[in-house]
């Protein structure tokens, strides 16, 4: 996910000199979920607003939330590879087969909160030790809020 965002940002920076001579470069950002999610509100939107707010940057990012460019979370990388999107938010869980070491970040109980998990994920991606991230330019590596487990039987403890 992050490498994809980073790859897009690097591409945009490479094209920046051309933008100075004409219209701004427009990049399409794909997001498979709602624009009401925490990830969109606290991560994607501020990033896009910062890029779009730089009047001399020569880059405009157009967002396509709600799966407008592709609803399947596991196929966001394909949107990048085929040029449907220039930037995409890639959730590692659904793209598990495309990133060899992603499961390490998803182990339960390793992190106190989203902030700590995000910092660790960013450092791991930046270090280059995680497999299959080198194909993409990663803008950021973000953890999501903890998920819940739904069951038919009552669960009161980890033993259950």
Give your account of this protein's structure:
The protein is of the alpha/beta class and 160 residues long. It has helices spanning 2-19, 38-53, 76-81, 114-127; strands at 25-30, 59-64, 87-88. Strands 2-1-3 form a three-stranded parallel β-sheet. α2 (38-53) links the parallel β1 (25-30) and β2 (59-64). The model has no long low-confidence stretch (mean pLDDT 83).
What layout of secondary structure does this protein have?
Layout: H1 2-19, E1 25-30, H2 38-53, E2 59-64, H3 76-81, E3 87-88, H4 114-127
Parallel strand pairs: 1-2, 1-3
Q: Approximately how much beta-strand content do the residues carry?
A: 5-15%
Low-pLDDT runs of 5+ residues are none
Overall residue-averaged pLDDT value: 83
Strands side by side in the biggest sheet: 2-1-3
Structural class per helix/strand content? alpha/beta
Level of helix content? Answer: 25-40%
Anisotropy-based shape: globular
Features:
alpha/beta; 9% strand; 160 residues; 4 helices; three-stranded parallel beta sheet
Question: Would you kindly provide a brief summary of this structure?
Answer:
The chain is 34% helix and 9% strand. With 160 residues, the chain is an alpha/beta fold.
């Amino acid at each position: 996910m992050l490498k994809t965002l980073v790859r897009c940002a690097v591409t945009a920076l490479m094209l920046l000199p051309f933008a100075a001579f004409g219209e701004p470069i427009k990049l399409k950002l794909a997001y498979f979920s709602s624009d009401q999610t925490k990830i969109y509100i606290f991560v994607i939107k501020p990033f896009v607003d910062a890029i779009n707010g730089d009047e001399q940057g020569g880059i405009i990012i157009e967002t396509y939330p709600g799966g407008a460019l592709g609803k399947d979370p596991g196929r966001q990388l394909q949107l990048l590879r085929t040029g449907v999107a220039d930037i995409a938010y890639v959730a590692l869980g659904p793209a598990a087969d495309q990133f060899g070491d992603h499961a390490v970040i998803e182990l339960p109980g390793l992190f106190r909160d989203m902030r700590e998990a995000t910092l660790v994920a960013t450092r791991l991606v930046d270090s280059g030790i995680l497999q299959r991230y080198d194909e993409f330019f990663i803008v950021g590596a973000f953890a999501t809020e903890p998920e819940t487990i739904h069951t038919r039987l009552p669960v009161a403890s980890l033993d259950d």
